[in-house]
Design a protein that fits this description.
Strand content: under 5%
Low-confidence stretches: none
Radius of gyration: 24 Å
CATH architecture of the largest domain: Orthogonal Bundle
Number of strands: 0
Mean pLDDT: 88
Bound molecules: heme C
Number of helices: 4
CATH class of the largest domain: Mainly Alpha
CATH topology of the largest domain: Flavocytochrome C3, Chain A, domain 2
Number of domains: 2
């Protein structure tokens, strides 16, 4: 029992410390716990139809167009009305690649694989929002170039 009380006391003290310092949560900024934060503005979704570079060959490409109100559920898959094999002549959208027709054992299916059905599990549109945290990602080409230079 005493252990539980000690636990609760430690928890309360840490909440108090967090509340006092106030700047431990990147989402809240340095707004005190008991105050409400002014919400971020709604940022524009990029909709320029320009395909972006992929950071590595296996990256699911980001979506260069808006997907507002595109229905993807048990009854319909709006994405496939443009991206399926049969629709690309009409839509001029890139076809979902062959991996989207493969099951987990590598067999090719006639239809979209169920594990690739919910597109936005992997593909996301981009917004003009500023990045919240830093990023030190380096393209593999840069790493290879640096290593070659060092080797010479
Ligand atoms: C009205 C047709 C249409 C619909 C519906 C549609 N797309 Fe697209 N999509 C396109 C076209 C056309 C492009 C090529 C770039 C452009 O013109 O925007 C594209 C590009 C893409 C790309 C970029 C591919 C690459 O190689 O960079 C992705 C990813 C994508 N769409 C995913 C989706 C997803 C996910 C949905 C559903 C939420 C969807 N699209 C719905 C037409 C469509
Ligand atoms: C489990 C993750 C996943 C899901 C779900 C998924 N994709 Fe992809 N997609 C990828 C990956 C990874 C790539 C890039 C490598 C590849 O082609 O497999 C890709 C590539 C693509 C491309 C570019 C193809 C090309 O050859 O340039 C399009 C377009 C695309 N996906 C559309 C879709 C659509 C539409 C859906 C929903 C019907 C979907 N994807 C569902 C992971 C996914």
């Amino acid at each position: 029992m005493r252990l539980i009380y000690t636990g609760i006391a430690i928890l309360l003290v840490s909440v108090a410390v967090f509340a006092a310092e106030g700047d431990h949560d990147s989402l809240r900024g340095n707004v005190p716990l008991l105050e409400e934060r002014t919400p971020e503005p709604l940022y524009e979704v990029e909709n320029n139809d320009l395909r972006r570079i992929r950071a590595y060959p296996m990256q699911p490409p980001t979506i260069p167009h808006k997907i507002d109100n595109y229905q993807v559920d048990l009854n319909a898959n709006r994405c496939m009305t443009c991206h399926s094999r049969r629709r690309v002549a009409e839509s001029q959208a890139p076809m979902v690649s062959v991996t989207h027709y493969m099951d987990r054992d590598g067999n090719f299916l006639a239809e979209l694989s169920p594990r690739r059905y919910f597109c936005s599990q992997c593909h996301v549109p981009q917004t003009t929002a500023p990045t919240q945290v830093g990023n030190t990602f380096q393209d593999i080409d840069e790493i290879i170039r640096e290593q070659r230079q060092r080797g010479q």
